[in-house]
């Protein structure tokens, strides 16, 4: 075993005999472009709504619920897709989230939420993951579109103005603290703080 | 001729009734004939303020002065109570659910909202700015009675 490793190390460690330096440099560059591009293309492909709802777990449960909310259908016709809220936009954060999502691939293979009953059973846990994520990153995915700086409170209802001035602008609370269940149905909220 | 024949009387009644029936258009909410599709009225926005609307009579469930679109009220969650519950009113500044809602059907007070009063929108509703389809002649009790102070003076 050790001999085998030693032999490979020798091959890697010795200069190239048959290929020119230019070929290796340019070839490496071209291969790098192809692999990097391919990686990012594949990454972006998993970052589309079409990809998400290609699984029945997402299409029949959470996507069906999204359809009746303001994030799917509204007066201006601008809408949020799954990754807009569930995948960070920054590259490093995105890769970190995608690594976490390998757990979801496991769940898909073993049918963790393959039926409606299983999904409903697991809904609170799944929701808590998302609440914890948004709480810890100060509702980053909300803020990608909704910026407090651009909020014109004169265009908001008196109730909204009061709540935003008291809790959002002071930084006392973040979006997800009050706006749970705006895009999907809520799980059983008994025991969740601030809920009955 | 001592008496109008019965058949003539009957004919006269039918004629008069028919004329009356034809003269008065039938009251209906339908704007077009039943076999034609009528244009749907525009949906107006919900009123969305924080101003209480006074009740029209003491037992009236207060109307909701704000928009409640998308508020989930089911066995899992009650969005209304996340502001109007007793423990939440301090932070939200919303009026507390009436104490009568803590009472079960035997008149016993419970620790939280009674299950029979849990579904808020059974009685409380938001308002849209629309013309009433059917008029009504309801008169507020205060308007109906003569001025209270003058009555006491008498």
TrEMBL record, chain A:
GO terms for molecular function: electron transfer activity; heme binding; metal ion binding. A menaquinol binds at residue 82. The chain crosses the membrane at residues 21-39. One of its GO terms (cellular component) is plasma membrane. Its cofactor is heme. Heme 3 binds at residues 142, 145-146. It is a single-pass membrane protein. Heme 2 binds at residues 85-86, 184. Binds 4 heme groups per subunit. It is found in: Cell membrane. SUPFAM superfamilies: Multiheme cytochromes. PANTHER family: CYTOCHROME C-TYPE PROTEIN, CYTOCHROME C-TYPE PROTEIN NAPC. Mediates electron flow from quinones to the NapAB complex. Belongs to the NapC/NirT/NrfH family. This is Cytochrome c-type protein.
From TrEMBL, chain B:
It comes from the Bacteria. InterPro entries: Multihaem_cyt_sf, NapB. Heme c 2 binds at residues 101, 120, 123-124. It holds the Pfam family NapB. GO terms for biological process: anaerobic respiration. Heme c 1 binds at residues 66, 80, 83-84. Electron transfer subunit of the periplasmic nitrate reductase complex NapAB. Receives electrons from the membrane-anchored tetraheme c-type NapC protein and transfers these to NapA subunit, thus allowing electron flow between membrane and periplasm. Essential for periplasmic nitrate reduction with nitrate as the terminal electron acceptor. Component of the periplasmic nitrate reductase NapAB complex composed of NapA and NapB. Its main location: periplasm. It is found in: Periplasm. This is Periplasmic nitrate reductase, electron transfer subunit. Residues 1-22 form the signal peptide. The keyword Transport applies. One of its GO terms (molecular function) is metal ion binding. GO terms for cellular component: periplasmic space. Binds 2 heme C groups per subunit. It comes from Thalassospira xianhensis MCCC 1A02616. Residues 32-67 are annotated as: Disordered. Belongs to the NapB family. Keywords: Electron transport, Heme, Iron, Metal-binding, Periplasm, Signal, Transport.
